[in-house]
Amino acid sequence: MSSAPVPPSLPSSGLAAATAADPRLVDALQALIARADTLLERLAPLLPPAAAAPDWHAAHAFRLRRRGPVRVLEPVRHTSPIRLSDLKEIDGQKERLVRNTEQFVAGRGANNVLLSGARGTGKSSLIKACLNEYAPRGLRVIEVDKVDLVELPDIVEQVAARPERFVVYCDDLSFDEGEPGYKALKSVLDGSVAQASDNVLVYATSNRRHLLPEYMDENLTYKHHPDGEVHPGEVVEEKISLSERFGLWISFYPFSQDEYLAIVAQWLRAFNVAEGEIAPAQKESLVWSLERGSRSGRVAQQFARDYAARHGNDGR
């Protein structure tokens, strides 16, 4: 099929005169518009459908998931039942996050939060416990994996008009060099031209304070001044820049033996182990922790669950 001749482009001021002078130009423009309409009709089935808005009343927590060509916010109908009172030996960290969350739910100023430090010390559990504490007052959590952080600006826009207060939760967050989610998170935290919605905060947990791998040769980029001052180079500054955009840093540290045993006792009681069995069980928990190479709260919970199940409780 032969194509209609495409006339040279004309300034808009002369277009009407040109079409009036040459009817063939009108025919060419009409043919071009018809071909464009046909092309759009063929492309329409290939475009991803618009994601339906979630039922915000279906749950207190939501998870971003890929469903075919689109990502959707799915309700999490069964969330962890952990309460703030269940978390032991992290009272200082608990007080700081609860204060920030209370301010946020009350509509006052609050900060994005980075919870970093030793594994298994209650970082994720503390966020889940805050959800259970403040969900009746309108707090909602949206869990986003780091590979989906590129969708973060769209999530913020989607919930901006909602009356609820949303915490975007990123668990075990860290980045390798060049990952796209890194830039998206930086932009949402502080850096985009668009102002972030005041009903959205980001709570992230990580074993790394600066969220990016750090290498020995990066020390060579530091600049030494004659007065003895040391200033980091551009590579180090870039790696620090993301974590600095979190207004609140909460650090977690490995537990001492006494702290670990206190957490073991708390979990044994939670699993309905008789009070008289707790002291003997704690001795066994030390062997368990040595085998695992860790005295974390997670290891304490795993031991207590196993111990309770072996001694006539259901371990749940």
* Average of per-residue pLDDT values: 80
Number of domains: 3
- Helix percent band: 40-55%
Distance between the termini: 72 Å
User: What share of the residues does DSSP label as strand, in percent?
Assistant: 5-15%
Unreliable residue runs: 215-220, 231-236
Structure overview:
- With 316 residues, this protein is an alpha/beta fold.
- The chain has 3 domains: 35 residues; 192 residues, P-loop containing nucleotide triphosphate hydrolases (Rossmann fold, 3-Layer(aba) Sandwich); 54 residues.
- The protein is built from 10 helices and 9 strands.
- A 7-stranded mixed beta sheet has the order 2-1-4-5-6-3-9, with helices on one face. Strands 7-8 form a two-stranded antiparallel sheet.
List keywords for this structure.
316 residues; alpha/beta; 10 helices; 42% helix
